[in-house]
Amino acid sequence: MATWNLDKTKHHVFICNGSSCNQAGAEEVTQAIRNEIANQELDPYIHTTRTRCNGRCHDKCVVVSYPDGIWYKDIKHHDAREFINSLKTGQPFSKKISHTFCGEGFQRTEGTVKGMSKEKENVIKVSKKL
């Protein structure tokens, strides 16, 4: 296991590799993003983490960028260069944004599925059905 020096890191990118995203090409997306970072010699500035499910399966493949707090949807391997360039320039990859952090929560973009509530009563209903 590696312990990376994050002193120069400006972006932390989480790449969903849960089952729905994997079926939609998450491994290819992961490798394409990592290769683009390496090709542009941005390894000290952009750190990636492969995650399990991020809970937005409808949006597969999901990529999340911090500290800006932007969730991206429908990312394909051929989007890697444009995505990394967006991080480099500070101009979000707007056509793929699903949610942006607005200080008090995340705001969905138009056309993004809302999804089910995480409120306790909803969880209880679901667990009773199981």
What can you tell me about this protein's structure?
The structure is a single chain. The protein contains 4 helices and 6 strands, in the order E-H-H-E-E-E-H-E-E-H. It has helices spanning 19-23, 26-39, 80-89, 120-129; strands at residues 11-16, 46-51, 63-66, 70-72, 97-101, 106-108. The model has no long low-confidence stretch (mean pLDDT 92). The chain has a 6-stranded mixed beta sheet with strand order 2-1-3-4-5-6, covered by helices on one side. The protein is an alpha+beta fold. 25% of the residues are buried. Strand 5 (97-101) and strand 6 (106-108) form a beta hairpin. The radius of gyration is 16 Å and the shape is globular. Helix 2 packs across helix 3 (80-89). The protein has one domain: Glutaredoxin.
List keywords for this structure.
130 residues; 30% helix; six-stranded mixed β-sheet; alpha+beta; 4 helices; Glutaredoxin; single chain; 6 strands
Largest sheet: 6 strands, mixed
Structural domain tally: 1
Q: Would you identify the CATH H-level superfamily?
A: Glutaredoxin
Beta-strand content: 15-25%
* Element pattern in H and E: EHHEEEHEEH
**Tell me, what's the shape?**
globular
- Counted beta strands: 6
CATH class: Alpha Beta
Largest sheet strand order: 2-1-3-4-5-6
Distance between the termini: 38 Å
> What is the overall pLDDT average?
92
Name of the CATH architecture: 3-Layer(aba) Sandwich
Helical percentage? 25-40%
At CATH level 3, the topology is Glutaredoxin
Counted by DSSP, the helix tally is 4
Cα radius of gyration in angstroms: 16 Å
Q: Give the low-confidence spans.
A: none
Structural class: alpha+beta
